[in-house]
Write a structure and sequence with these properties.
3 domains, 16% strand, Endonuclease, Chain A, 40% helix, 385 residues
Amino acid sequence: MVITLTMIGELIYLVNVVVAIIMVFRQRRDIAAIWAWLLVLLLLPVVGFVLYAFLGRQLPQGKLFKVKSDTQLEMADLLAKQRQALGNEQLPADEVSTSVQELVQMFMTANDAFLARKNRVKLIADGHELFHHMIEDIERAKSSVHVEFYTFYNDQIGRELRDLLVRKAQSGVEVRVIYDPFGSLGTYRSFFKPLREAGGYAEPFLAHAMIWDFRLNFRNHRKIVVVDGKIGYVGGYNVGDQYLGRKAKFGYWRDTHLRLTGSGVFGLQGRFIQDWNATAHAGALPADRIVAKYFPLTHVKGETNLQIVTSGPDSELQQIKMGYIKLIQTAKKRVWLQTPYLIPDDSVMDALKIAIMAGVDVRIMIPACRIIRLSTGRHSTMRMS
C-alpha cells in the first residue's frame, strides 16, 4: 500500500474534525457558540486552534469558585445579628429599596446578593483623593488587608502601595494581593517578592508558577480593597500612575470609585475570599465557615442600602447584565449611563430602544466619542457623547 500526501492530508483533517468536536462539546455552551467554534476549528485547522486556546476554553469545574450552603446560612445569621445591633428603624433608603423590590429579589435569587442596610458610602471621582483615603485606611489596618486589582503597575503609585503593604505585613497584619497578569503586564512576580518575604501573599489571577493561562476571556477585572473587614473600596480605578494623571498620553483620568463602611463590606470580603481560594497556591482562607476576623460586626449607622453583585465564569447567568436590563425596563423618566466601554449585545440594545420609544430620556456618556444618533423610529434618538 502506497501512502500518498492526499491520504496523509485526509487523515490529518479527520483527526482535526474529531479533536474539534471533542474540544467544543466537552464543555457546556449555548448553541450559537458551539456552531461558531466548530466552523472556526474546521475551516482554520491551525489558526482556529490557536484562537480557541486564547478565547474558547472555559474554566474546568474544579477551578470555579463555589459558596457552600452552610456558609450562606452562617452569613444569613451574621446579617440577622447585624440588623439587631443596628436597630430596625426605617430610613429613607428603605423606601427606595421597597420601590425596586423586584430588582433586589432578582439579585438575591441570581447572585445570593443580600441587601445590606445602613451603610456609609463615599463617592470618589478623583484618583488622588482615592489613593489618599485608601493609603490612610491601610496604614491604620490592625488585622488584615485584602487587595484585588486588574492592573497593579510597577510605577510610582504601585511601588508606594506595595511598600506600604510590606510594612503592614512586617507589623503582623495579614496582607493578600490578587492581580491579573494580563492587566498588569510589566509587573512580574519579583515585584511582590518583598511582600512575600515580609509574610504577605501576592498571586497572579489563575496563573501557575512557570506558565500563564492564555485564556483572554477569563481575566479578573475586579477592583476590591478590604481593610480589617470593616472598610471596603470598589469601583473603576486600578493601581497605576495614569489614574493619577501622570501620563501625558491619557491626561486627566476620570473614573468612579466607592468607599464603603457597614455590612455591605461583607459582600466584597466574600468575593475576595472566593477569588483568592480559586487562584492562591498558599494561604487559603476559610470558605466553609464565616470567620469573625474577616466579617466583624459593625456599628456603622449610615443612610445607604446596597447589594454587592458579582458576575463571572463561576455562574451560567450574566447577573450584572441582567441587572442593567431590569433597571432600564423599570425606568420611568430617565436612563443616564456613564461607562468607559460600550459593547451592548442585542438584549441591552433592545431594552434601550424600548425605553426611548416609551419616552424615557436615555443618555450614554463614553470617552472621546462624538455624538452619535441612533434612530429608533420617527423622532426618537439615543444620544451618546
